[in-house]
From TrEMBL:
InterPro entries recorded: Cytidylate_kin, Cytidylate_kinase_dom, P-loop_NTPase
Organism the protein comes from: Sphingomonas arvum
The family this protein is said to belong to: Belongs to the cytidylate kinase family. Type 1 subfamily.
Localization of this protein: Cytoplasm
Name under which the protein is recorded: Cytidylate kinase
Lineage of the species this protein comes from: Bacteria, Pseudomonadati, Pseudomonadota, Alphaproteobacteria, Sphingomonadales
HAMAP family the UniProt entry points to: Cytidyl_kinase_type1 (MF_00238)
Keywords linked to the UniProt accession: ATP-binding, Cytoplasm, Kinase, Nucleotide-binding, Transferase
Catalytic activity: CMP + ATP = CDP + ADP; dCMP + ATP = dCDP + ADP
Chief location of this protein within or outside the cell: cytoplasm
Length: 208
């Protein structure tokens, strides 16, 4: 059978990770959460004490991400904030490109989720989903997730942070967050986890 490449893009806490993992399980494909690569660069930079305002420092941090890929700290808000900043640097995006394209090029195919999978990493993907939800719904989800992990949270701060990250991710010049022309829109604002997954499977199957 031809390889099946599924691109899942969308903003923070839209449900794209949940959808991507479920699609990978449903179609028996390997899955890559590409945000983890940017988070690993951010964590490497933070640990080493490099300056996040320096593209050169961020590029150097790309060399040291191998050992950080499973680190528990990757999911923290601090790391996410720095990841959002360093991901605007073209040199960082370029340094992470080959790893993602190799993953997408596996013989059976793959599911990748991120911001620019359908537009830059795998423009020829079999199916592209753009998963979104209102900022308020996404902030509520992030609050629940952080609370479940025992972290202190304040809804207004989380909402501000989500809006700031959307703004940065959508307005940077290098590979901004943007729905590909041929991507299918999945708005999860009114959907629970099961309904979002069922809809995603339906949308992908319609492309086969
Ligand atoms: O999805 P996640 O919140 O883990 O991503 C962290 C940051 O990495 C995002 O805010 C975004 O700026 C960046 N990112 C990106 N391109 C991707 C995946 C993530 O720029 N493909």
């Amino acid at each position: 059978p031809p390889s099946l490449v599924i691109a899942v893009d969308g903003p923070a806490a839209s449900g794209k990770g949940t959808v991507a993992r479920a699609l990978a399980a449903r179609f028996g494909l390997p899955h890559m959460d590409t945000g983890m690569l940017y988070r690993a660069v951010a964590l490497s930079l933070l640990r080493w004490g490099g300056d996040p305002d320096s593209e050169f420092a961020a590029l150097r941090a790309c060399d040291a991400i191998g050992s950080l890929i499973d680190d528990a700290e990757l999911r923290s808000e601090t790391v996410g904030g720095v990841a959002s900043r360093i991901s605007a640097y073209p040199a960082v995006r370029q340094a992470l490109l080959e790893r993602q394209q190799e993953f997408a090029g596996q013989p059976d195919g793959a599911v990748l989720d991120g911001r620019d999978i359908g537009t830059v990493i795998a423009p020829g993907a079999t199916a592209k989903l753009f998963v979104t939800a209102s900022p308020e719904v996404r902030a509520e989800r992030r609050v629940a997730e952080l609370q479940a992990r025992g972290m202190p949270v304040h809804y207004p701060d989380v909402l501000l942070d989500i809006r700031a990250r959307d703004e940065r991710d959508s307005h940077r010049s290098a590979a901004p967050l943007k729905q590909a022309a041929d991507a299918l829109l999945l708005d999860t604002s009114m959907l629970d986890r099961e309904a979002a997954v069922a809809e995603a499977i339906r949308l992908v199957e319609a492309r086969l």
